[in-house]
Amino acid sequence: MFSDRLGAAAQAIQAQFKHTLGQLDDVPVVRAMRHATHGGKRLRGFLVIESARLHGISSAQSIWAATAVEALHAYSLVHDDLPCMDDDDLRRGKPTVHRKWDEATAVLAGDALQTLAFELVTRSEASPEPAVRAELALRLARASGAEGMVLGQALDIAAETAEAPLSLDDITRLQHGKTGALIEWSATAGAVLAQADAAPLLRYARALGLAFQIADDVLDVTGDSATVGKAVGKDASAGKATFVSLLGLEAARRRAADLVSEACDSLEGYGAEAETLKEAARFVVTRAH
Amino acid sequence: MFSDRLGAAAQAIQAQFKHTLGQLDDVPVVRAMRHATHGGKRLRGFLVIESARLHGISSAQSIWAATAVEALHAYSLVHDDLPCMDDDDLRRGKPTVHRKWDEATAVLAGDALQTLAFELVTRSEASPEPAVRAELALRLARASGAEGMVLGQALDIAAETAEAPLSLDDITRLQHGKTGALIEWSATAGAVLAQADAAPLLRYARALGLAFQIADDVLDVTGDSATVGKAVGKDASAGKATFVSLLGLEAARRRAADLVSEACDSLEGYGAEAETLKEAARFVVTRAH
């Protein structure tokens, strides 16, 4: 059920990107945007669509917000991969944008993908309620800017030259910015779209986001690059503090499992309808990529 | 009157940036955002405040949209100045962000400034009407993404390696993206804030935006870098087609003057209240920086 719905979400998001980007001029920066938005698990977009379904919002409507968060995620990957940032050659098993084109195109494609995210959530198709569109955009800005994702990335860069290794609190704050804030936006989007109470989904998303990041650190140690689709072992060889280096491999796995239980418990009020989101939480810590 | 109001707008925008950025963590990326949002003419923000005043909207309200467009403009400058783009060391008479910090900080500060722009227009302070906030954000996205500013920048980069020099139509389209779209957003923001007809302000803005760019090309030939606050003569020495290279210096100046008349004529319906915006149009082609 979960994997079917994840696959269906991925297909719908891909179709939406094809439609949206197909309307733009066929210049290199737009081709780079297509490249950067192709593939990936689409976990964030799936969380939007499933949390919307829980509140009776169809995927025909939630697809706009789902595609928006995937555009924002894609922008962050394109810029993170730049030589002056993580300097990665491979992403989702394909060359990164600056390797396939050049750095200028990667900067611009990332910039335009961020803009596209805000366009998609404020288009009238995203919600018949203007208040919902404004709220989605405001929350997206707070999740992704200097209070959210960019702060996390900046703390990550600062950590590389810090004299003392990061503490568990530091890493938790850093990772909340880097990945947690956007996962929270995604999993609460359904409640925002329905103008309903977002508190249960927020509790779910907080646990899920942290579990997701711990699992990522575990994969960096235990995965191989062909399966993961990007370079692995980089954090360990760079001597970076991670959940695994701080907790140890087994304790990190246990912590992730506890967080999955916590995420599932948060959704009890939704009944059987929430089963797919619970499966998603279990998937996050057992995935191989 | 015009210079007083331009100065007042600049002060109000600076105070708004200080307040907004002062609430963020004092990390290098936030310090870089402060650096990048300091100074400048604030012409775009001024257009927001003045077009709002024409429609009876106070500067206490329009300051949010005015600061938003200046944040977006600042992001575009930080990224345009990067080594992989225009590779500039000097901006507004001060070192560019990547020179004062590094490239990673410049990428992230630009990213966060774009996000900040969307946060500022969707905050409830920007307008009591959610429909207005959503509309401001949607228009801002369209003006700045792969249909607007980023497209203009991409066409500019493509022009550098193009085999044939650009035509007047090409340059006009390129410059509409690079500067015109954001000037149009700014000058029509007042009508959007008031939910009024934006057509007269759009005509004004189209003429103003083109006049502004022609004047910029003239300054690149006739100005000196100390007064202009950035490197000059770069376009001519790079052999880039500009309005001046295509039209000649005198014809370019005449075209700019004609556009200023056109801009002023568009505002006839507003009566004496529009005098400041007319003065702004005259200033744009006579400025020395």
UniProtKB/TrEMBL annotation, chains A, B:
One of its GO terms (molecular function) is metal ion binding. Pathway: Isoprenoid biosynthesis; geranylgeranyl diphosphate biosynthesis; geranylgeranyl diphosphate from farnesyl diphosphate and isopentenyl diphosphate: step 1/1. Its EC number is 2.5.1.29. GO terms for cellular component: cytoplasm. The keyword Ion transport does not apply. GO terms for biological process: carotenoid biosynthetic process; chlorophyll biosynthetic process; photosynthesis. It catalyses: isopentenyl diphosphate + (2E,6E)-farnesyl diphosphate = (2E,6E,10E)-geranylgeranyl diphosphate + diphosphate. Pfam families: polyprenyl_synt. CDD domains: Trans_IPPS_HT (cd00685). Its cofactor is Mg(2+). Transmembrane segments: none annotated. It is an enzyme of class 2 (transferase). SUPFAM superfamilies: Terpenoid synthases (SSF48576). Keywords: Carotenoid biosynthesis, Chlorophyll biosynthesis, Isoprene biosynthesis, Magnesium, Metal-binding, Photosynthesis, Transferase. Belongs to the FPP/GGPP synthase family. Catalyzes the condensation of farnesyl diphosphate (FPP) and isopentenyl diphosphate (IPP) to yield geranylgeranyl diphosphate (GGPP) needed for biosynthesis of carotenoids and diterpenes. This is Geranylgeranyl diphosphate synthase. It comes from Roseobacter cerasinus. The lineage of its organism: Bacteria, Pseudomonadati, Pseudomonadota, Alphaproteobacteria, Rhodobacterales. The gene is ispA.
